[in-house]
Design a protein that fits this description.
Blueprint (H helix, E strand, L loop, with lengths): L6 E5 L9 H15 L3 E4 L5 H11 L4 E6 L12 E5 L2 H11 L2 E4 L4 H15 L8 E4 L4 H13 L5 H4 L4 E3 L2 H20 L3
Parallel strand pairs: 1-2, 1-5, 2-3, 3-4, 5-6, 6-7
Length: about 190
């Protein structure tokens, strides 16, 4: 992708179809992210991945899809650029690598793995701090339970110092949070030392 836009990687279920609330929420999110100037990256297949790409394309934004030969399927019609890797593990880490920020939509075990790996990498400082948003109420119980463990002791890890996952109630709130995070970071880099 030749765009200089910040890339937001979106994780979510492959199950929702057009008309399903989770599909339509992801489609709206894609539009909101594109309207804020972001490129969207997803796993490239159906469900939330299709919806996020579709919403972004409908709003004029660029889209990437990371697919794996392991799954045999190709990217959905709304993806501008397909990045094809060998395995699902390669796909996971390519999705993480490409994102400047992340949104986690409702999903099953695959989405749970994606959320967990991003969170662990941030928590242990394996990668630079990047904004992560959990969309809607779906992940709230998981985030709150894990956060309780992380801050309950004398943890020296990232979550013990500050929340690493932001909970957003709507696609508009998620996009606004990400835009504000990148604006704040850009402003702090411009300040004289």
């Amino acid at each position: 992708m030749k765009s200089a836009a910040k890339i937001v990687t979106v994780f979510g279920s492959s199950r929702p179809r057009p008309g399903d609330p989770h599909y339509e929420e992801a489609r709206e999110l894609g539009g909101q992210l594109a309207a804020k100037g972001f490129a969207v990256c997803s796993g490239g297949y159906g469900g939330v991945m299709e919806a996020i790409s579709r919403g972004a394309k409908e709003a004029g934004g660029p889209t990437l899809g990371v697919t794996a030969k392991f799954f045999r399927a190709r990217a959905n019609q709304w993806v501008d650029e397909e990045i094809r890797v060998e395995s699902w593990q390669d796909r996971l880490f390519e999705l993480i690598k490409r994102g400047h920020g992340y949104v986690v939509c409702p999903g099953g075990t695959g989405t749970l793995v994606e959320l967990s790996v991003v969170w662990e990498m941030l928590n242990k400082g394996v990668m630079a701090r990047k904004p992560v948003v959990a969309l809607g109420s779906f992940w709230r119980p998981v985030v709150e339970c894990v956060r309780e463990v992380e801050v309950g002791g004398d943890s020296r890890w990232g979550e013990g110092r500050e929340p690493l996952i932001h909970l957003a109630t709507s696609p508009a709130a998620a996009a606004a949070y990400l835009a504000a995070q990148f604006a704040t970071r850009a402003a702090s880099r411009k300040r004289p030392q």
